[in-house]
UniProtKB/TrEMBL annotation:
Domain Protein kinase per the UniProt entry, residue ranges: 288-534
One GO cellular component term: plasma membrane
Catalytic class of the enzyme: transferase
Cellular compartments annotated: Cell membrane; Membrane
Annotated transmembrane regions: 224-244
Membrane disposition: Single-pass membrane protein; Single-pass type I membrane protein
Catalytic activity: L-threonyl-[protein] + ATP = O-phospho-L-threonyl-[protein] + ADP + H(+); L-seryl-[protein] + ATP = O-phospho-L-seryl-[protein] + ADP + H(+)
EC number: 2.7.11.1
Name of the featured protein: non-specific serine/threonine protein kinase
Main subcellular localisation: membrane
Pfam hit, one: PK_Tyr_Ser-Thr
Organism: Capsella rubella
Amino acid sequence: MFSFHKMAVAFTVLVFACLCSFVSPDAQGDALFALRISLRALPNQLSDWNQNQVNPCTWSQVICDDKNLVTSLTLSDMNFSGTLSSRIGALENLKTLTLKGNGITGEIPEDVGNLTSLTSLDLEDNQLTGRIPSTIGNLKKLQFLTLSRNKLNGTIPESLTGLPNLLNLLLDSNSLTGQIPQSLFEIPKYNFTSNNLNCGGGQPHPCVSEVAHSGDSSKPKTGIIAGVVAGVTVILFGILLFLFCKDRHKGYRRDVFVDVAGEVDRRIAFGQLKRFAWRELQLATDNFSEKNVLGQGGFGKVYKGVLPDNTKIAVKRLTDFESPGGDAAFQREVEMISVAVHRNLLRLIGFCTTQTERLLVYPFMQNLSLAHSLRELKADDPVLDWETRKRIALGAARGFEYLHEHCNPKIIHRDVKAANVLLDEDFEAVVGDFGLAKLVDVRRTNVTTQVRGTMGHIAPEYLSTGKSSERTDVFGYGIMLLELVTGQRAIDFSRLEEEDDVLLLDHVCIITHQNSFSQALFTIIILGIFVLDR
């Protein structure tokens, strides 16, 4: 039976490996939280915006890039009645900002000119007053500027003429006055109507561009186009159906490499994921060659593949989905991926289903897995320094924290180990392989009829009772940290030559029994350095 002392050792190593310290939220989180306050968000609005959380990339309505930089913020039609915080200028990597359809008052802060990566700014249908800030002229990448239906006054700033990429300029239904800079009439789509400006009514230029104006009468054309497309689609479908029936009548057998309509399982919904053809993935993986095998899990192998555009992918092929648990595992993984989107979680990009196959497509991780980087490096491969190991530990922790705290229902991974912590090109941790995971409904017990996981990583209470919880993953995470520090496997039968225990946790506990705690910790560190040098 595992003792509390053993758990304490694992926890202490966890603390050491992560070099845990309290850190304050970054400038992005501060700026977003200040915006939430200034907009007077209700308690039930943006309730997951936690000021004490270092990384705001898990917050609702916020999108980040792969470097955890906030690139998109959409807060439309939320009935805010406050003002825009000047702190918004700290979001220097923001590309799209959409706050339309609220009751936002006050002026547009000059600090918006600091958003030099912005391509789209939409503040339509609010109660904004004051002048259009001239600092918007600093946004050289801006393509879409929508300030319609506000109470803006004053003149249109001359600085807007210095926006070389501007495609849409919508300033209608305000209280703007004066002259419109001539070059703004050259923008493909503009609208200056319902203002007191020098356009229309005998002026040289109309108040609305032809493109914007013609948009009002586009609906009938859209209907005609839709009808034509639908008709052509029906005809093509009829032709294909005829050819298919004719082909079957002649007795020809379809090649197993080709997808047909009947091979698609309509019971499974996949949202906006890309549907790959079987032949497409077969070619990408060189007919699922063994030389392209990246690893093998409980429900099938993972293959490296290359698409025609040279995009590298990882294809998980479920070879036993017809057996008990196989098909359910496939649907479970798709379900979880649809609700678990985070920088430190493996992103599903597509799938393939036929009558005989189930495949999932992921982005290829350049540095494979933590297990590979610890124990399977070639002579010229870089080793993991301590700073990188700390970053991997923290990244994996953020991924698991998202599964436990930000998914509803929460997700228990149940197979946390170094082999399931993948590493991208920057050695950032990406938690993968949800094939063994379980969607936990908070209204039900966490009892499972079958213990899943990898020996050496399974929590003792899970092994004895079959009940899994967040603690199951925390235990596995602690074992993974021991692997991260020592470089050793969680279970290694070669240890039987010198001691009775094959488990890494027991091995560490033996060290603590034979030495003082400080000496034991020092021994663990030296052991890790020895593995690095070797």
